[in-house]
């Protein structure tokens, strides 16, 4: 279990995060959702260990890790633009960490990740030859090989389009389920957050607006921000899509009637 | 393209004509000269020069001292750039490093040499402070010192720039993947910089190899190619044929350098996105960088201190009380103050003509429907001007324009500078122009503008920053250049740098330093004024 207690962070006297308290259970997928500049990336960096907290505690499995440096926390991250090493091919990127920690994953496990993420036929390719979705999967594989205790994903879907987005979503869910891996995802897209995760953490202006399961957020929004900015957006999307399907259904019905 | 683009074709032809007359013809003439001899056309000159012990030694000296200087300059520049990009040092300290590191660029190289003499020489400022002469300044040591000061700013800007384009997020990835700090450093900083470090080395080598100012002052008995070349052309027994051969020998390493630079461009790593991450707190690293950068800058600036000290005291080193006498003398001496006025005139005209030429050339390549091959010609010209050392252009001009009405005139000096420094400002112009929206000309012509009007009303106002930068680049370089103008300036068209060379002959060093101060002051003033306008413009755009 990961626990944040009274976490505070400011830069140059500008408060970014104020009194953040939350608990994440093992194996949960949690999305951090909020508009740009709300502090969600800072929160991710705090968990990762890249940014030190001004005050408060981060506790992981009962151990205070607030002062533990990034390298020793054993968490890992996939960045929005993947940060794959351009001078190494796909396979060398995936097995990059094995050079430093031989045996952290066995050969069979590496093959399993490659298989799971469908990268077998791309192993000898250069990074620049890959599409966005393929790069994302390579980055995921590279991170999974390190057997992270928590997997952090920074806007994992925002650079991808349509169908690929849905398939990566499934992969993330599959990984979290199969490996019982706590996964924290930063996103600004309510649809993504609510359809991908077990719990959603809505952040606004440096503090938690609401934290709960997607159903709770839809049925019991706690404040105006959640209603106005999160639900309203989904409502508009829903209506648009319904209208679209309704029209085409009506047309089918009409066509049927004419016959 | 339906538009006829008559204007751009005219511009293109004019530009080509300028470079044909002031670049192609002189260089071809120089090449021919090197093959001409008493016995007709042949390689006799080459055999004569190349089998000579003197020349071969000078060539070897040039290579050795240039390689050493380039290595040291690149190393130091990397250290300073690292201090700026990868430490949590105070922002003010960083901006001070940034400013001070490039200061030497505002002075002519010939001044560096004299500054070194007056710092480390027998009566030097630093010799007095330390109580003994630290090392023998004439020859290898002096050259090395001068070249490092000369190339450090250029290498620093190059490395700092590329470092700014490295995605720092890779450091995080490397760390969470379990790399040790040394590996992280190699993989995420050194690896993406390799191309630039090599490019910096080559660039520094090229600059040292072709510079004349520093060997002119501290070379001593240690002959390098530049001094041999000068002596062949303007020495006691000038021999133009042999000089032309030496010039060709100077050209060859330059050509190789530029080819290498082109090749190294491929190794530049391109990141899709540049992200800043919070750097690890590391007081030891920050401390080392702060101390190291300070030491480097203090060393450079200490040498320049003499430029301020020597001319402002009565008689160095015997009467060291403050006086403005020497400055007043220079101001009152028309033969000296006149050269300052000449220099300003040349610099302003160079900047204006240079602006027109580079703007026209860049318009032709970046904003016209001209055939790709025609555009390639201009790019090739830029590459060639980058390759040819100033001394070679100067000598070629001397050979071809002697006896013509252009000989020893200001227009010739101005055109020489414009051609010599064409490459960098042209590329600056081309890059900015190609970033502007490509439909402007079409849109404006639909609204009734003719082409010239569009350029004046739409394109130029959006180019202000670049135009000011190009102006400043040409101005500063025209003020400090010595290697080309030394061969083409006449008695009435003397500029400061050539005057300094003459004053050296009469050992009038107070005047040398006063004139150097004038150059420095003028350049700083121009930089500040233009910098202010560029900044204001950029802020408005935000």
UniProtKB/TrEMBL annotation, chain A:
GO terms for molecular function: ABC-type quaternary ammonium compound transporting activity; ATP binding; ATP hydrolysis activity. The keyword ATP-binding applies. Its EC number is 7.6.2.9. Residues 2-230 form the ABC transporter domain. It comes from the Bacteria. Keywords: ATP-binding, Nucleotide-binding, Transport. Transmembrane segments: none annotated. It holds the Pfam family ABC_tran. Gene3D superfamilies: P-loop containing nucleotide triphosphate hydrolases. InterPro entries: AAA+_ATPase, ABC_SmlMolc_Importer, ABC_transporter-like_ATP-bd, ABC_transporter-like_CS, P-loop_NTPase. It is an enzyme of class 7 (translocase). PANTHER family: BICARBONATE TRANSPORT ATP-BINDING PROTEIN CMPC, SPERMIDINE/PUTRESCINE IMPORT ATP-BINDING PROTEIN POTA. This is ABC-type quaternary amine transporter. It comes from Candidatus Eubacterium avistercoris.
